[in-house]
Input
Amino acid sequence: MSVARDLSALLRFRDFRRLLSVRLLSQGADGVYQVALATYVVFSPERQASAAAIASAMAVLLLPYSVVGPFAGVLLDRWRRRQVFLHGNLARAVLAAVTGVLMVADVPSWLFYASALCVTGINRFVLAGLSAALPRVVDADRLVIANSLSPTAGTLSAFAGGGLAFVIRLAGADSDAAVVLLAAVLYLGAALTSLLMAPELLGPERELVQPRLGTALRGTAHDLVAGVRHLAAPPRREAAWALASMTLMRFCYGALTVMVLMLCRYGLTSDADDGLRLLGLALGFSGAGFFAAAAVTPGAAGRLGPARWIVVCAASAAVLEPALGLPFLTGPLLAAAFVLGLVTQGAKIATDTVVQSSVDDGFRGRIFSVYDVLFNIAFVGAAGVAALMLPSDGRSAPLVVTIALLYGAIAAAMARFERRSVSHQ
Output
């Protein structure tokens, strides 16, 4: 069955249409808000962006996922999910409007970041709730299709929202505050759309809820520790190595992202609008690399094996990243964005495959929670390291070379592990 036919079949379910509408509006607003936040920190004429400011913005965007993520499910299984979408999006609408006010007011930076942190923290509950609610709006036969198409549609909506934010900003919006207010309107739309569903429709079933919150939270922490121990056992060593490699590659990608932001703002152009256009191009090339990875990886990993494909991705980055990065020119920068998008996403797809095939079914959810935490902490940590190494114009040969050496070390370590695994078989 084609994707269009799958989607057409799902859209016959009225409540699925309504839940999907909440997702599209909510994640579209996320895209608008996150781009507005980034452009305010990096490209506002009234602000002198620094690598440290960029690292702070990344921490605001990503750390809530790491801290709240593993425990979000415990609370979502106690609250009516329809109400999470209603009150969560209403709160984000208000907080996004507050963010817009803080952007134009003369207030300490920590107030702005606190407001943004609250918006992104609530996002974890909304996204997890959207996934948890899906089985309540489609039948069992179509649940797999819904789990495939609904998050994909949400991601596309987030990209569209980010693109819209870029267009509005480049078209002459007076400030990033105006773009943030658009995000507030979209969050409000998501909240109002959720009212089309009955409060009890999306669950959870009250009789299945664990009675004590403290017990549930402690149980979650205990389960995460058990998941790490399961991963460390010899039969899952390949999954552990793949996760370690992917975490380090995510670190590399995070450091280079900060460098690209600084280059777009100061190193390759002195005009903020030109820099914003260049950043949009770089993100587009990186996104094209992600899509290319989705097309290439299944065949390549099938022929080589997922572990060897991770080696190829890391080794390719080790060679191409300095070759394209050290000239500090626009053309090579865009090519590097494509290559790094391809190898990073290619390695992630391979890592997901290794984890899914190596880890026992009863531990997969916990391992992917650990994976999510490592993924985001690595990105934020990389931003902090880059902030210490980057000059004001972003042109740092030592950072480029250090990242290339790290990619090379990842490739060498993973290749050595693969050889030892083959020799022991």
Observations:
- The chain has a mean pLDDT of 84.
- The chain has two domains: 1-209, 223-425.
- Residues 1-209 form a domain with the Growth Hormone; Chain: A; fold (CATH 1.20.1250.20).
- The radius of gyration is 22 Å.
